[in-house]
Design brief:
The structure is a single chain. The chain is α/β, with parallel strands linked by helices and about 400 residues long. The chain folds into 2 domains: about 270 residues, Aminopeptidase; about 110 residues, Alpha-Beta Plaits. The strands form 4 sheets. It has an 8-stranded mixed beta sheet with strand order 1-2-4-3-5-16-6-15, sandwiched between helices. Strand 3, helix 3 and strand 4 form a beta-alpha-beta unit. Helix 1 runs antiparallel to helix 3, helix 3 crosses helix 10 and helix 6 runs antiparallel to helix 7. The relative contact order is 0.21.
């Protein structure tokens, strides 16, 4: 297997340049046209001839064929989009686009897959093919880029038999990896509740059906769904994240809008949350003389690592950094990741890569740690050599 030292030096310096360029020029959702153009030009410069663009608007799939004969095709995925955050990292390569920021490390993910592409295109010491998947719109709600690329048939179109993903992890030491079999990230559902009341002057609340008070009771009531109605050994998170009422001091509005998110590891708990959130909100509102409108959307499924793919990922990471640097029983995160759709379509695995003591993802001070680049590049290369080695 290939040592991490192979990916230091010139390749790391080049990948650092790519990463910082992408960081300076972040683009959102499906509108990653310049990023996709940059990626496509780099892939072509590596001598990769089979490059298909425009998948899910701005997504890319490129194929590298090995020189070891016939074999399967495995997919390696990187996300390309940024977030609508004002950057506060104060780095020389900070965002040049006000209000846009690579606050989740997708610039690093893209640079690492480009680095692996350059190396693999020059060596081709494997059988079968590698499908390089560069995905837009990971950070958006339905339909996300991962879902759309699957819906547009990339797995069948490129005959992908297994698919793998990777994400940086702030707080995990550089050179370390984390993974587990089965669920590794939770599902994401979103809900909206419109509390209907009867508005009026704030000086005469007795002549109203106050939706603000009803909304407050609903928010408190939702907390008991987890603490009193679910098994404490099971994982369920219900968080209210939005509240919109009157904009004036002296008006009780006709309605109040509540919104939030649900995270879990089991589809049965998704069913429970959808049913019980409505029942709780409706019961409370009607008890005060009001009512609710309710919408519930299943946004992202559980990110589920398949046994064989997990073992291959662990082997590749251990071959790169040694057994002691790979935690194969990492704690499950209740965050969500739309790579889950690709793992529903094909077996494979999702792994974390240490980003060092940086700010957390989605924080204005976050920055991808360039010291992680050779480890990410090396993991991809070792994974290809593990799965497709001759």
């Amino acid at each position: 297997m290939t040592s991490v030292e192979t990916f230091r030096g010139d390749l790391q310096r080049e990948a650092t340049e790519w990463r910082r360029y992408l960081h300076e020029n972040p683009e959102l959702d499906y509108r990653v046209d310049n990023t996709a153009k940059f990626v496509t030009e780099k892939l072509a410069s590596f001598g990769i001839n089979h490059i298909e663009t425009g998948i899910a608007e701005t997504g890319i799939v490129a194929l590298i064929q090995g020189e070891g004969g016939d074999g399967p095709t495995i997919g390696l995925r990187a996300d390309m989009d940024a977030l609508p955050i004002i950057e506060a990292s104060n780095k020389p390569w900070s965002s040049k686009i006000p209000g846009n920021m690579h606050a989740c490390g997708h610039d690093g993910h893209t640079a690492m897959l480009l680095g692996a592409a350059k190396y693999l295109a020059s060596t081709r010491k494997f059988k079968g093919s590698v499908a390089l998947i560069f995905q837009p719109a990971e950070e958006v709600e339905l339909p996300s880029g991962g879902l759309r690329m699957v819906q547009e048939g990339i797995m069948d179109r490129f005959d992908i038999s297994q698919v793998f993903g990777m994400h940086n992890q702030p707080g995990m030491e550089i050179g370390k990896f984390g993974i587990c079999d089965g669920p590794i990230m939770g599902s994401q559902d979103d809900f909206d509740i419109v509390v209907k009341g009867k508005g009026g002057h704030a000086a005469g609340p007795h002549r109203t059906i106050d939706p603000v008070v009803i909304a407050a009771q609903i928010i408190i009531g939702l907390q008991t769904l987890v603490s009193r109605k679910t098994d404490p050994r099971e994982s369920l998170v219900i968080s209210v994240t939005k509240l919109n009422a009157s904009r004036a001091y002296n008006i009780i509005p006709d309605q109040v809008e509540i919104a939030g998110t649900v995270r879990t590891l089991a589809s049965g708990l998704q069913d429970f949350a959808e049913r019980e959130i409505l029942a709780s909100a409706q019961g409370i509102a009607r008890g005060f003389g009001g009512d609710v409108e309710f919408k519930y959307r299943r946004s992202v499924p559980v990110t589920f690592n398949h046994p064989e793919g997990t073992n291959l990922a662990i082997t590749a990471a251990r071959n790169l950094v040694g057994p002691a640097s790979v935690d194969d029983k990492i704690s499950v995160s209740m965050g969500a990741e739309d790579f889950a759709y690709m793992l529903e379509a094909r077996p494979g695995a999702f792994i974390y890569l240490g980003n060092g003591p940086t700010a957390s993802v989605h924080h204005p001070a976050y920055d991808f740690n360039d010291k992680a680049l050779p480890y990410g590049i090396g993991y991809w290369v070792n994974l290809v050599e593990t799965v497709l080695g001759v």
